[in-house]
Amino acid sequence: MHLITQALVRAEGLRKVFRSGKSNLVLFDNLSFQVSTGEMLAIVGESGAGKSTLLHIMGALDSATAGEVFLDEVRLTSLSENAAAELRNRDIGFVWQFHYLLPEFTALENAAMPLLLRGSPAQDAREAASHWLREVGLEQRAHHRSGELSGGEQQRVALARALITRPKLLLADEPTGDLDSKTADSVFELISRLHREYQLTSLIATHNFAFARRCHRVLRLQNGRIEEVAPETLPV
Fold first, then answer.
1. Pairing relationship of beta strands 92-95 and 169-173 according to DSSP bridges
2. CA-to-CA distance for 195 and 27, rounded, in angstroms?
């Protein structure tokens, strides 16, 4: 049974407006929700509903037109650009639909990159990267460049890279959307296992209802509004 604890992340009254020609496009308005520590929360919705934009705002990569986001009581809108970058490196792990691995580096070097960027000793970063590559089942592929890895293996490296900093929050935007169904299922199983074993707090945007049903809670983003739906009521 999943025990709800205090909120790690809170969104309060989020509004996002884009300028479109001479008019404004309101992507969403007055979104408020929270993610409890240890929870795996799915956000579902049609393409274009604003799931990716919402995750960017939650991860301090974009700013809302109005409203606030709090991560562990830190108000993200109050942060300078440098402070936001530091918070992302320290407290947030990102996994995207496309892995964004650096092609000239090996799997080990890609996984180690967040620690190297924060100035960790190279040996410490390599050891941590080796640990996380073992966790994602790629220890034997550590010295292969990304182009020598399959799509599923590349996404596993991206997951190792996201978790190497031991973040408070994992943000995953369609993490299996670029994979075939069998590979996608194995990657989602891996995310679920690491979520449990490392007591992560995870916010996952997905169009895959089968995966969303396996999360603790589901929010549907539709027509600029958000509503909670019971996971078991999602279409099969």
1. parallel
2. 30
For residue 89, what are the contacts with CB-CB under 8 A and spacing of at least 6? Answer: 114, 117, 118, 165
Span 59-80, pLDDT tens digits: 888 888 999 999 988 888 888 8
Q: Which two tokens stand for residue 44?
A: 């579902």
CB-based contact 142:130 (threshold 8 Å): yes
pLDDT tens readout for residues 117-163: 888 899 999 999 999 998 888 888 889 998 898 888 888 899 899 99
The DSSP string of 27-71 is: EEEEEEEEEETT-EEEEE--TTSSHHHHHHHHTTSS--SEEEEEE
Q: What's the burial of 178, exposed, middle or buried (CB within 10 Å: 0-12/13-18/19+)? A: middle
Percent pLDDT > 70 in the chain is 98
Whole-angstrom Cα distance, residue 87 to residue 31? Answer: 23
Asked if 14 contacts 190 with a C-beta cutoff of 8 angstroms, the reply is: no
Write the pLDDT tens digit of every residue in 5-36: 578 899 999 988 888 778 888 888 889 999 99
Per DSSP, the chain holds a count of helices (H) and strands (E) of 7, 10
- With contact defined as beta carbons under 8 Å apart, do 136 and 162 qualify? no
Supply the pLDDT for residue 3.
47
Helix (H) or strand (E) holding 90: helix 81-91
User: How far apart are the C-alpha atoms of 122 and 55, rounded to whole Å?
Assistant: 31
DSSP 181-216: HHHHHHHHHHHHHHHHHTT-EEEEE-S-HHHHTTSS
